[in-house]
Structure formats: C-alpha cells, structure tokens
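Would you mind giving me a polypeptide sequence along with per-residue structure tokens?
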Amino acid sequence: MDTDLTSALQFQCDEITPPFSIIITCYNQAAFIREAVESALNQSFMEKQIIVVDDFSSDGSIQLLRQYNDAIRLIALQRNVGAARARNLGASIASGNFLVFLDGDDVLMPWALDIYHQIIEARRPKVVLGKLLFFDERLRAPASRDRPRRVRIVEYPCFMKKDRAYRASASSAVVDRQSFASVGGWSVGFFPFEDIDLMIKLGYSGRAVLIVSPATAGYRRHARNVSRQTDRMFHGLFNLIRKQKSGEYMDPRGSELETCGVIGGVVFYWLKRAFKANLYYHGVKLVAAGGLMVIVGVFRRFIAIAVGKQPEEIVEIPPARVAEF
C-alpha cells in the first residue's frame, strides 16, 4: 500500500472535479499505446481527465506519448515500479469522481464513459464492472451506428454479493475515487490477479453494477499477455489464497464464507484449465491449497442457480452529448 495515497486522493476531492479520470499505464507498449490513448481521447463523453503513467519504458513509448502535449497529463517515471504502483501514482493526481483504469495494450469503446456516466447517475454505485471484448492484435474501429442505446446490467448491494462470473481486468475496473483511497488502492507487488485482489478489498464498500452488455473495453490478446504465462498465473492464485488464509481480506461488514466463495470461483476456473492442459502438478497444488474455497465457490454457484440469480435490468443511453455536471 502507498502510505500517501489516501491523503493525496482526499486532497484532490476538495477541487472542482470532472466525472472521470482515465488512468492509462504503459510499460514497453509502443506498438499499442497510441490506440489506448486515442480510445480515451475519442470518448463521446467529453468531461474527462486523461492521465498516462509511463513505467520507465525503453521501447520509444515515452516519445510517442510526449506528442500528445497537453491533451494528456503524462507522468514519466524514472525507474520501473510495476503496474500497481504506477496505477496508484496516476490515481494520486486524479481529480475525477470515478477512476477508469486502462492498460496500455487495451482500448476503451467510444461509448464507455457515456455508459458509465448513465449507470452512475441512475444507480449511484461505488464500483462498476465493465464488459470486455476480447480481440486479436487489431480491433475494427466502431462506427456511429454501433453506439448502443440500451445497456443490460445487474445491480448488487456490493461486489461480494455478485452471483455471475465476469472476466476481471484492470481495464474493466471503474471505481469511486474515495472508495479506492479507503482501501489503499492497488496492492503493490501483487501480480497477477491484482484486479481480483482490488475487488475483494472493495467487496463491501457499497453498491456494485455489473455490465452484461455491450462491451465497454477491448482486451487485446497477444503473445505478451500475462494470462499466457501459466507459472505466473498460478503464482497469483496462490497469493490470493494466502491472503485469505492469513486474514488480510477480513472485513467486519462481511462474511469470510463470501470471500472464500469469490476466490474459490476463480480457483475453480483455473483448476479446470490446469487439468485440461495436463498441468496436473499445478492442479494438485491448487486443490491442496484452495480445495475448501473451491467447494464453497461451487456451492455458492449452485445456490445462485437454485434460488435464482439477481435479475438483469435495462438502462437507456441517450444520444451522445457533452456531459453536464
């Protein structure tokens, strides 16, 4: 945790703020970073702040970013600090009421902020879980006719009550700035599954809205995705399990069983992937470390199916316009 993060974010709250701060992090992503920045600049929702944190890239990324001049606020780090600390540094200078995170190899759909704004105005959540569109290398530029008019959502009292699976990513995280500060932001040194870790820390912070459709962000699949690095992914899973067992996720407002169920659902997904890929050693280790959590997670899903999941709702999205706030 960055010790100055909470005070820095609370200080920013005293200023006149736009609805959103988009925080883009980049580390040696020269091939993709321009698309990420352009996707933020080209949002149909106009009232936004764009912060880009370059984590000491050595591939020319910083030279590309400097071409945007005052269109973005650029932080060029003088040493590599890792994704979590880079995001926290971006958040510490953000002035938006909500933080929209975006990795440097991903993109926002042009209507993303319009959708987030409409949901926030209608439901007042603390967390919005965006919908990801997975694509390979290049994404076709959406046309104006692709702009959605209706959004399917599911609303929960808090994240820990979520009864549907979703594909977690930093690029799908939209978080109330004060709530983000209250949990210390992203856990420095925790990677991968830092997105799940953050959502568990925010688990009882207040209302959460899950977007079922349409997609609000594009997740680029390429050779350097950490999700392709099996050993690192399983290392992250064991970190989640360790934090739960050590009591680091304890929250007096919630239930340990619910936290176990959330982690167990993630472990169960990767357990299936391990055995399908004949990674029996990893699978057995996961069962030994998190078997009880898997049982809780599977039971939780069974109850949701038997009792009935939280119903979907529709939010209407008005035509694109300059936001008023």
About this structure: Residues 6-14 have pLDDT under 50 and may be disordered. Residues 127 and 230 are 29 Å apart (CA to CA). The first strand starts at residue 20 and ends at 26. The chain has two domains: 5-223, 230-307.
